[in-house]
Specification:
Elements: H1 4-7, H2 16-35, H3 55-60, H4 65-91, H5 96-108, H6 112-122, H7 124-141, H8 148-171, H9 174-206, H10 211-267
Transmembrane segments: 12-34, 64-85, 176-201, 221-242
Main location: membrane
Pfam family, one: MotA_ExbB
């Protein structure tokens, strides 16, 4: 059950596919117009070697895998920002630990109206769940047909259902970030392998060993490895950070929910 306040919260971006497509288009534009800018290469020709010390031209020489890895990198950054605002809205207006403490204090005093006021002021996922559970609490107080154990079970069920409605919104898009943790590194390695194959093929066709060509080819190929590792590392950091945030939020939900149930059991 959702409250009116939940409708005003930022729910995040559901169409992650559109984000990936948009990031791919941006990555292609960056690859061709920034990295592939003729000014980055000898004789202003992208088919030539990059200018000495020009990193943008070197990245361009990483090949078609570069915009693919860039897409994954931009997707991680975009979804990380999106998750930040979504979870910030889920936590509510004030500090979550303070809100939980205030709710528990109101419950200990038996002041349900105060607890509801705190929920209306706090907003966010925790406040939505607590508010829904408090409504069931008052409903069970007025119910003269069910036994006490049945009332407690009804309150617990309401808590679980309200939590189940909020969790998918909080965990949305995290599976995509989790996938990129591995996919980014694999794409980097794929780009490196392709670059090395091309490098050795060029040396073989030349009929001799050209150390300059070999070292240049290897440096260009390793660009993909660097991009892949960077993407995977950022994805791991983002995923673990937001997973920890969600764990903290669900712990607060369990703590408040337990207090509501225990209050009902002790006073009825």
């Amino acid at each position: 059950m959702k409250t009116n306040n939940s409708k005003q919260s930022f729910k995040g971006i559901e169409s992650a596919g559109l984000i990936i497509i948009a990031c791919f288009i941006v990555a292609i534009c960056i690859y061709h117009f920034v990295f592939g800018n003729p000014a980055n290469f000898m004789n202003n020709d992208p088919n030539n070697h990059p200018l000495p010390g020009n990193m943008l031209g070197t990245i361009y020489k990483g090949g078609i895998i570069v915009p693919v890895i860039q897409t994954l990198l931009l997707t991680v950054l975009t979804l990380s920002v999106e998750r930040y605002f979504t979870l910030r809205a889920s936590f509510g207006r004030s500090k979550l630990s303070k809100f939980v403490a205030q709710i528990k204090d109101a419950l200990n005093k038996g002041d349900m109206e105060k607890a509801q006021e705190l929920c209306d002021k706090q907003r966010g996922s925790v406040a939505n769940v607590v508010s829904s559970t408090l409504r069931k609490y008052r409903e069970m107080e007025q119910n003269n047909e069910l036994a006490k154990d049945q009332k407690i079970l009804a309150i617990q069920k309401e808590l679980e259902e309200a939590t189940a409605l909020e969790l998918p919104m909080m965990q949305q898009n995290l599976p995509i970030i989790a996938t990129i943790t591995t996919l980014g590194t694999l794409m980097g390695l794929l780009g490196t392998v392709i670059g090395m194959i091309r490098s050795f093929a060029a040396l073989s066709a030349g009929g001799g060993t050209d150390s300059v060509a070999l070292s240049t080819g290897i440096s260009e190929a390793l660009i993909n490895t660097a991009f892949g590792i960077l993407t995977g590392a950022l994805a791991v950091i983002s995923y673990n950070y937001y997973t920890n945030k969600i764990d903290k939020l669900t712990y607060s939900l369990d703590e408040v929910g337990f207090s509501i149930v225990q209050t009902f059991a002790a006073t009825h």
